[in-house]
Specification:
The protein is α+β, with helices and mostly antiparallel strands and about 210 residues long. It folds into 2 domains: about 110 residues, DNA Polymerase III, Chain A, domain 2, CATH 3.10.150; about 70 residues, no CATH class. Helices cover about 30% and strands about 35% of the residues. The chain contains 5 helices and 8 strands. A 6-stranded antiparallel beta sheet has the order 2-3-8-7-6-5. Strands 1-4 form a two-stranded antiparallel ribbon. The longest helix has 18 residues. The two termini are about 30 Å apart.
């Protein structure tokens, strides 16, 4: 069993908050944990994308410090992390035993690039929040209670795949992910490109799209 050791209880609680927000979007979702040295990158899927390679998938990512070097790359159920955190005692509130049960997630099959990103602009976080809330309202009104699952899925894909009227433009799904995961505080969000990848970054986290 792998154990990740964090510098303090707040760092571990930060992971717990990230997992809780991701589970509010998909209670049965997964999280990819990539530890290298003293940094842990945690990825969650926000929008699933299409096909075997999950084209159009939208991911959320948080980077957290570790107190001890670790090497790890595994994808586990979000629920497994929640259970582990719930059992963490106050005497060892800085350690997480990684669940041994792994899962397969289409969005986790292709890792985003770590280097070579080109900064292409900035967006006010308020603008991203507006795009997200407008999309949520559109889906709520366009898919009332009783709508079939296929109709709802199709509407969500249309709303979140279209480009927002921002400069630079980003898919509306990026705004939704940043809003849902609590990444939109004050200030601006930086927008980066790398080939087919787009990244929207704030001080609270990153949204990645391909």
């Amino acid at each position: 069993m792998s154990t990740l050791r964090f510098p303090d209880a707040e760092a571990l609680a930060d992971l717990g908050t990230f997992v809780a927000r991701a589970r509010s979007l998909d209670a049965d979702g997964a999280i990819r944990l990539q530890a290298q040295g003293l940094a842990l990158a945690a990825y969650v899927g926000v929008l699933p994308g299409r096909g075997l390679m999950a084209e159009g998938a939208v991911l959320g990512m948080r980077v957290m410090p570790l107190a001890e070097p670790a090497e790890l790359d595994t994808t586990v159920p979000l629920a497994g992390i929640t259970d582990r955190l719930a059992r963490t005692g106050t005497a060892d509130a800085r350690s997480l035993d990684v669940p041994p049960t792994t899962v397969s997630a289409g969005w986790a099959a292709v890792a985003p690039p770590r280097q070579g990103w080109e900064r292409v602009g900035e967006l006010p976080t308020a603008a991203l929040k507006a795009v997200a809330t407008q999309g949520i309202e559109e889906i709520a009104h366009g898919a009332p209670t009783g709508s079939g699952g296929h109709a709802v899925t199709s509407l969500r894909e249309r709303v979140w795949s279209r480009m927002a009227e921002t400069v630079p433009p980003v898919p509306a799904g990026a705004a939704f992910a940043a809003y849902a995961l609590g990444f939109l505080g004050g200030g601006d969000a930086a927008v980066f490109m790398h080939g087919r990848w787009t990244r929207v970054s704030t001080s609270a986290g990153h949204v990645l799209l391909r």
